[in-house]
Design a protein that fits this description.
With 248 residues, the protein is mostly helical. Helices cover 71% and strands 0% of the residues.
């Protein structure tokens, strides 16, 4: 039997849960803010204004596809090429959204709030929200209380706002600083995801899809562009999850 005395999460105010999400996100900013700034400098060097970078990163909240779009922008390909490349890199969000949807449904989330949750759902937001779901499940909360919308919004708003502000600032003041990527700051990108994977690692018997995705992405990247490597890794990881039974 659960009650608010043993589980204060049941009566946690919206603002408190949202603030907790913001605090949880702070360590992520060590990697995301410099990356956003570097993305902005690259966009500025390719002719994008600070306002243009802020709008692009605010409307398309997905770092990997934005780096690809900025690189393609300088090559002057057709709009269709930029669109398809962005879509291929962002297709992983289909999988993330499918994993998030059942928890939104169990929480009886209104459609406008669910749309906001999906808009703010980048990889880091999804990972931290799923960690919160796992924590609340272990506490024994009812199924309709396991997903915390205010926590998710707190995480998402923090990452989203700092991302487009950093990118816009980078485009304005960073264009004269040269190629910042030569200093190795882009390593923060994979390091952030490695940290998320380690924090969310499942039991060994359930790790096959993760291992398949990681190995296939690494091998594919030796011969194929980044967006194709991501697509292949996502498809093979899903296949492993669908056809190979997990072990306890």
């Amino acid at each position: 039997m659960t009650d608010s005395k043993t589980l204060p999460e049941l009566t946690e105010p919206f603002s408190a849960a949202m603030l907790r999400g913001m605090r949880t996100t702070v360590p992520m900013l060590v990697g995301t803010v410099p990356l956003g700034f570097i993305l902005g400098t690259q966009g500025g060097q390719h002719g994008l204004s600070g306002l243009g970078m802020a709008l692009m990163t605010g409307m398309n909240f997905a770092g990997g596809s934005e780096f690809a779009a900025v690189a393609l922008w300088s090559a002057a390909p057709s709009f269709l090429v930029i669109f398809m490349t962005t879509w291929l890199i962002n297709c992983r969000h289909i999988v993330l959204g499918a994993a998030l949807t059942p928890w939104l449904e169990r929480a009886r989330t209104p459609v406008p709030a669910a749309m906001l949750a999906f808009f703010l759902m980048c990889d880091e937001t999804w990972a931290l929200s799923m960690q919160e779901v796992s924590r609340r499940r272990k506490l024994g909360l009812p199924a309709d209380k396991v997903f915390s919308l205010p926590f998710h919004i707190g995480v998402g708003l923090t990452l989203w706002s700092t991302w487009w502000i950093a990118a816009g600032t980078g485009a304005v003041v960073g264009s004269a600083m040269g190629d910042l990527a030569r200093w190795g700051f882009l390593m923060a990108f994979p390091a952030t995801f490695i940290g998320l994977v380690v924090a969310m690692r499942p039991a060994l018997g359930k790790s096959l899809p993760m291992a398949v995705s990681g190995v296939s992405a690494a091998l594919a990247s030796l011969w194929l562009p980044l967006h194709w490597s991501i697509l292949i890794a996502a498809v093979l990881g899903l296949a492993a999850a669908a056809f190979v039974p997990a072990k306890d």
